[in-house]
Model the fold of this input.
Amino acid sequence: MMNEYIRKINYYETDKMGIVHHSNYVRIMEEARIDFLEKLGYSHEKLESEGFYSPVVAVSCKYKKPLNFPDEVRVITSVKSCNGVGFVFAYEIYKEDELMFCGTSEHCITSTDYRIVRIKNEFPQFYNALCENIK
Amino acid sequence: MMNEYIRKINYYETDKMGIVHHSNYVRIMEEARIDFLEKLGYSHEKLESEGFYSPVVAVSCKYKKPLNFPDEVRVITSVKSCNGVGFVFAYEIYKEDELMFCGTSEHCITSTDYRIVRIKNEFPQFYNALCENIK
Amino acid sequence: MMNEYIRKINYYETDKMGIVHHSNYVRIMEEARIDFLEKLGYSHEKLESEGFYSPVVAVSCKYKKPLNFPDEVRVITSVKSCNGVGFVFAYEIYKEDELMFCGTSEHCITSTDYRIVRIKNEFPQFYNALCENIK
Amino acid sequence: MMNEYIRKINYYETDKMGIVHHSNYVRIMEEARIDFLEKLGYSHEKLESEGFYSPVVAVSCKYKKPLNFPDEVRVITSVKSCNGVGFVFAYEIYKEDELMFCGTSEHCITSTDYRIVRIKNEFPQFYNALCENIK
Done:
């Protein structure tokens, strides 16, 4: 599954260079990831109700072309990899058909008391859902 | 007590008009209030350890002159009023000697399960500390 | 005209109290205002192309009930008043049918070199559009 | 040169997991970088007055341990590499003596009309200052 998430740039996300401040892409990635997981059947609430958190372990961002207000963007999210303890999402942000940004986020799964969990063993249906969707 | 809190403007707080985005003043007010309460002996942790939260009930902002990166500002915080259930802080932001902004925030006190508390009765030492510092 | 703007709360807008941080409502108000003005025919780009900015002069916020992730909210925006030099927008944020927040923002109009402009004289069609939509 | 930048965590930087939201580290990195460059003699204004911008081309973040309000952190910034067209900063965030986060940011230099500039040729004193400070 490659998920498409449509999103307008907000005025308050710009900076004095007249473009979207680079920190805000990490927030756009989070929105797109939450949308992806919801469509996969694993919303944030679903994960929490099963007793799991999925903290961000690492993030990478490549800024190719600046975005600006009032651009409308498409964020394409996909699972890049998944192993027994963690998984990686990849993001591409397009304005019309032009690739403006690409990034990744790496996650683990913890219990609600923040103990790292082997997702393959302790949450296999989520593990399988991710693996089946590796692009 | 009038508390002075010194603070640099951050680049990421600007917007494409080239000035500090108006939403960020609410955050600067929070920083200044936390600093004030800490100096008064009622840090956030102290309040929580006593079993209290102090949520924001209302906020007002008057933007007089724009701030910009890399301005350095002084925020003068004072208690404007305090009654049995709530209290109001006033804030003035100066750049050098010029008043750039003024604002207020109104607060109540709740227990950690969000029940509103009569601070005069249930947390009198905090109530007194506030009243003694009304400007 | 009363404009309805639908909006999901983002995870990154919450704070450690588990609710939407109070500064973010000012940003939601901005989104709703931009949406309102766009539908009125006066998008940000339209205003700029006519040679005008509309800076925020003042803001007020009343926090009635906390919002949380992943709430979906409706923001109702209306023109509250308009005179020769400025205008005021009013905002109500609803979760389902419950009023969670209300706020106002006050604006003036400047030329792109930040000189305050008498909108009734120098930008009458915008002035009229606002006046016709006072709620 | 390794620059040390001291910084308090702000309440509004936390999220509902009770920790600093991961997007905010990119902002802390920016603060630390601006502080570093200022001490190096190349403040943002100095760069601009020379006719240069230094946009962020890429960012990477590794979240090792969560930060929380009201932590005080030390950000250690250093130049990791520098070639004819770009340079990379490395950041480590410590709470007391524990490494909580490390990250990098990659930059190029452009003219104020956003044309990429060969910094070694067109801005050699800045290039040299960076190279001399590679850690």
Chain C has a mean pLDDT of 96. The CA atoms of residues 53 and 110 of chain C lie 5 Å apart. Strands of chain C lie at 3-8, 52-53, 56-63, 72-82, 86-95, 98-108, 110-111.
